[in-house]
Amino acid sequence: MNYHTRKWIKPEDLNPNHTLFGGRLLQWIDEESALYAIVQLETPRCVTKFISEINFISSAKQGDIIEIGIEATAFGKTSITLTCEVRNMMTRHTIITIDKIVFVGVDLEGKPTEHGKTQIEFITDRLKNKNDNQY
Questions:
Q1: pTM, 2 dp
Q2: How confident is the model at residue 135 (pLDDT cuts 50, 70, 90)?
Q3: Cα(102)–Cα(72) distance, integer angstroms
Q4: What is the rounded CA–CA span in Å between residue 32 and residue 40?
Q5: Which of 22, 24, 58, 132 is least enclosed, having the fewest CB within 10 Å?
């Protein structure tokens, strides 16, 4: 799993129990997952279709640094399925896992659109292929 984003837990991220507010964490996960889907599907328009069971395993407190890990597990005709794990960067303790997050690429009218992708592509490979094709 690749951990693309780190977040520093600040006072405004806490719940009344003085631990990380679950809603804030889910907001960060949804945003990071959307960015991952947009890059993989090469479209600026992706929407969250489905999020499976969310398993809160431990918490984070003010001052902790967390890492959000996202990985593609499947490609559909119009969708990409991701898995997510968030962990404490220093202790490596898992904070939350989500087995399945599905994003769908859509057109300007919000209708699903086929993307033609079948596997993870890295930006460096795309740039290399693009440069190789220029000559």
A1: 0.87
A2: low
A3: 10
A4: 12
A5: 132
